[in-house]
Amino acid sequence: QVRLVAAGGGLVQPGGSLRLSCAASGINFRDYAWAWYRQTPGNQRKWVASVFKGSATLLYTDDVKGRFTISRDDDKNTVFLQMNNLKLEDTAVYSCNPLNTNDWGQGTQVTVSS
User: Fold this and answer.
1) pLDDT level of residue 54 (50, 70, 90 thresholds)
2) Which of 4, 1, 20, 26 is nearest to 90 (CA)?
3) Alpha carbons 19 and 6: distance in angstroms, whole number
4) What does the alpha-carbon distance between residue 38 and residue 25 come to, in Å, rounded to a whole number?
5) What is the mean pLDDT of residues 81-86?
């Protein structure tokens, strides 16, 4: 059974930073590409960033390019999302996902507010 535990969210002012983590178990972590998604109430999840095997390729949605950095630690079965220069519109629940699966955790809330 796949378990995904996201952490690191919180309340931050515009321009601030947060580092999200997602610890995975019950899955061969290093065999998958991983992604972060975010979701606001009443809307579908939107893709934010992906990191492929060996961190060879990193992809970002245009909204976060230059501000967010995705990374992975295969020894710790964990994927990270460093979020800098946060904006009000980054407020959402952030979840990680092994690409091409329907495995989701509970997510972590990020609230950007002054």
Assistant:
1) confident
2) 20
3) 11
4) 21
5) 98
